[in-house]
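We now fix the convention by which a protein and its fold are recorded. Here is one such record, which you should read through line by line:

>
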Amino acid sequence: MSLCGYTNDPTEVAQQGYDALMAGEDHVFASSMKTKVQGELGKFMPESAKAKMHEKQAEPKSKQG
């Protein structure tokens, strides 16, 4: 679950991944605009910053906000 309580729709993510595969793309940031922005920004962020973001997103729901 994401920080805002929103989870990407698995069906939509799977379809986007399949479409990218069939188009010959080597990667895709599927579903929400937030996911796409995070994926693109991750190319320029240090590993330590990405690790902190992941740590927050991976916390159990009861620990978040």
Summary: The two ends are 13 Å apart (CA to CA). DSSP finds three helices and no strands in the chain.
